[in-house]
Specification:
Number of domains: 3
Structural class: alpha/beta
Distance between the termini: 52 Å
CATH topology of the largest domain: TIM Barrel
CATH architecture of the largest domain: Alpha-Beta Barrel
Strand order of the largest sheet: 1-8-7-3-4-5-6-2
Helix content: 40-55%
CATH class of the largest domain: Alpha Beta
Radius of gyration: 25 Å
Number of strands: 16
Largest sheet: 8 strands, mixed
Shape: globular
């Protein structure tokens, strides 16, 4: 038995045989060329980058189709790198100046970028160094024909490799994937983000070459302790079998809540709805018996194809499918929330110095009415197939609500005139995620049927903290008195106007925040589907 120490990058315990995936390392033979070969190598570079972009676009589309939105976002970031003219220029210059082939030049350029990132005193930026290593690997795999080859398995396994990129995880059938062990990577690496989203435990900092791990070795991966046990003794195996059994029992215990309503110890009923963004995610919503969908993120549909926007018919079919699957349960569709951290290539939004304070969400939609009206038409037509509600994000002024409402009314009129029929008016609401919206909630409530409090942005804007910034993330506090005061203000305004109000940010599914939200008057919480059983159990501990 051998115990190896690593870093727990994604929580959980796994018990299975090792599968060692040998990847093309971020290194290779250096090849010199003569000056007359320069044009050929630059042309080869153009071709290789184009093939890589096509491959990444396919991977991104598949990720979003499979409901793996986090993975899809990663491929979006890779697409930006591959589109970067500066990288092409630097690589071309490297070919000319060093007289090397495109493989060597791209390795040098990506290596330089990676080294610059790794040298920064910021864990998040250090993790981004891996992006350039992965980009190099993807380009090389495209050149050698290795890209896109699926890895299929017939029994449980723990994937062991030097490094794992999103392109690797996209090739693997996750049916039997129980854990991931890598030499390079951290909690902020894209691989770790993807593993956490999929519920797959991950350890980093362990070299299979140095430790001698081979295909077929029995492994126990304990991400909580940061340990990998190779060929465990029988007593250790028995101990971990008990631990895994306990986790299974916990899931079984929570399963009894599936068909129960959310209710506190005092008998107060709480609506528990789910957040989703793709059609495949609806299965998890139904499996956890959510009371509905409190937030359906429509922007993921716009991310599927970097070359063009989804057509009206494509949008209609997607929204229709969601509504049909949900039956009579309500679905709140958030209109396009572009900008900020959601880069949608096909929209052509220019890069901004501070995108979170820039041209995003409703601000973009009102200035590009053709995009907004097409989405509204699709939603209105789809509304006939279920319990549909429409919600506008990123409101900061009453005029924005009035303009959005007028545009919705004009789309109704346009459709009814063209089709000679009457459409039912669906509930129309807004997200309260800026302090400005919370402070003017009384005025805004006059124009809408419901409020949805987006706690992520509301907290970020209120305490002036970028939660993704390692230097200040500890200051991001959803229970900050100012945040709670704005939530209470919003709830009072909603109650006064007789309209619904719910919370749909991360705060909604965090049991540490539940009591504060209920005391503020919130009676509907929208969260990740898998959080619903935990919340039902927690509500029974609250005497509210």
């Amino acid at each position: 038995m051998k115990i190896l120490k690593g870093l727990g990058a994604a929580e959980g315990i796994a018990f299975a045989k090792a599968f060692v995936l040998k990847t093309n390392k971020f290194s290779g033979n250096r090849t010199s060329i003569t000056e007359d070969k320069i044009p050929l190598e630059i042309e080869a570079l153009k071709t290789a980058l184009a093939k890589a972009k096509d491959e990444v676009a396919l991977l991104q589309k598949k990720a979003y189709s499979d409901g793996a939105s986090e993975q899809g976002d990663v491929f979006g970031a890779y697409m930006e790198i591959l589109d970067d003219e500066e990288m092409f220029k630097d690589t071309s210059d490297c070919i000319k100046e060093k007289l090397v082939d495109m493989n060597t030049a791209l390795m040098d350029v990506c290596g330089g970028y990676a080294a610059d990132m790794a040298a920064l005193d910021d864990p998040y930026m250090q993790a981004r160094a891996d992006d350039f290593r992965q980009i190099f690997r993807i380009v090389m795999d495209c050149r050698t024909g290795e890209s896109g080859k699926a890895l299929e398995f017939s029994e449980d396994f723990i994937l062991v490799s030097t490094e794992i990129g999103p392109a690797d995880t996209a090739r693997i059938d996750r049916t039997y994937l129980k854990g991931v062990v890598v030499e390079t990577g951290s909690r902020t690496s894209h691989a770790a983000i993807i593993c956490r989203a999929a519920g797959i435990p991950m350890l980093s900092g362990i070299s299979y070459e140095k430790s001698g791990i081979k295909n077929g070795d029995l492994l126990i991966l304990d991400a909580q302790k940061g340990e990998l046990i190779v060929e465990p003794e029988e007593s250790v195996k028995a101990d971990y079998e008990r631990k895994i059994s306990a986790l299974t029992e916990q899931r079984k215990r929570l399963a009894v809540f599936r068909d129960k309503k959310g209710v506190t110890a005092a008998g107060t009923h709480i609506e528990l709805t789910a957040n989703a963004g793709t059609v495949p995610e609806i299965d998890a919503v139904l499996e956890n018996n959510a009371d509905g969908i409190g937030l359906f993120r429509t922007e993921f549909l716009f991310m599927e194809n970097p070359e063009r926007l989804p057509t009206e018919n494509e949008q209609f079919n997607s929204y229709k499918t969601v509504l049909l699957k949900m039956g009579k349960k309500p679905v709140v569709f958030r209109t396009l929330d572009a900008g900020g951290d959601k880069n949608i290539a096909a929209l052509g939004i220019p890069k901004e110095e501070n995108p979170f304070l820039g041209w995003r969400a409703i601000r973009y939609c009102l200035k590009t009415p053709e995009v907004f009206r097409m989405q509204l038409r699709a939603l209105i037509k789809a509304s006939e197939f279920g319990n549909c509600e429409i919600m506008i994000p990123m409101i900061s002024a009453e005029d924005e609500v009035i303009c959005a409402k007028k545009m919705l009314d004009s789309v109704y009129a346009e459709l009814e005139e063209a089709e000679h029929k009457t459409y039912k008016r669906v509930p129309f609401g807004i997200m309260v995620e800026t302090p400005a919206a919370a402070l003017t909630a009384d005025a805004l409530a006059k124009h809408v049927d419901f409020f949805s409090i987006g706690s992520n942005d509301l907290t970020q804007y209120t305490v002036a903290v970028d939660r993704g910034n390692e230097y200040v993330s500890e200051l991001y506090d959803e229970l900050h008195p100012a945040v709670l005061s704005l939530i209470e203000m919003t709830v009072r305004a909603a109650n006064k106007a007789g309209i619904k109000v719910h919370v749909c940010g991360e705060m909604a599914g965090d049991t540490r925040c539940t009591e504060a939200l209920l005391k503020a008057g919130v009676r509907e919480l929208s969260m990740s589907p898998n959080r619903i059983p935990y919340m039902k159990e927690h509500l029974l501990t609250l005497n509210i």
